[in-house]
């Protein structure tokens, strides 16, 4: 997909400047619902940013404001330096928006649908660009097919092709793999990675923690209209990813023996499991010492397993703790 990279060259700003800068954003809908609260967020050029949040958290509202489809109540959004309200056309032309579903175009051909989308942005026809986009999404052979004849995966790729038709630098993907099977999900992930490699900045919303864990360079969590966390994915996993060792005991215990109180131990499953929590990133886990002390206390176990807390645990904790 390298031939799409020209679409991603920064122009208005230097390469180090965030491609999207959101400051002090507020949105209160006409009915009085306060959907976005003091949102500050910068998106870096060329990254994949995953926006995670439960239903009703404000993901779609945030994307809609950035795309200029919904007016903010306060604050501002700059897209490649352009204000999303005052310089709407300039800002919007830099963004491709991939919705979840195709609408009402079942009998059109792939080529016409994608070319038409470009026209909506007032761009002159550019068959060479449309050809590049279709080839990069392996839709070239299907260019004369009507959409109704395509598989689910191809239809999703047509949505991306439409969004790329006007050569945007930024691509928003709204729940790109909602309701698709595992194979198609992996295919979509590969397409998104290739797009990022071609220089397009990707922002995706998802309910699937696994998707964020697999794809994102950075992860943002929105809850109740507030951004409650923005972190490098790797740092997030390191910082918050504690580990647990579960020991399945041969004989149940009534209580954790006094000689083991120095460890962070919990007794579970009616006393037949001891759970030891430790920091997976630390040098010494303390496991060797614990096993020695268990032996000294005459506690035998029949099995053991370890578990690393996942992004899902982290996410659930965040959303629970900060309503
Ligand atoms: N046009 C509107 N008028 C009034 N309230 C709205 C409007 N659009 C959205 N809301 C409310 O704003 C809140 C955030 O909605 P939004 O669609 O942004 O959430 P979301 O995070 O995208 O949710 P989901 O994951 O379910 O799509 C919700 O409580 C919703 O009911």
From TrEMBL:
InterPro entries (alphabetical): AAA+_ATPase, ABC_transporter-like_ATP-bd, ABC_transporter-like_CS, ABC_transporter_ATP-binding, P-loop_NTPase
Domain ABC transporter as annotated: residue spans: 20-249
Bilayer-crossing regions: none
Name of the protein this chain belongs to: ABC transporter ATP-binding protein
Species for this entry: Franzmannia qiaohouensis
Keywords: ATP-binding, Nucleotide-binding, Transport
Keyword ATP-binding: yes
UniProt xrefs under Pfam families: ABC_tran
Molecular-function GO term, any one: ATP binding
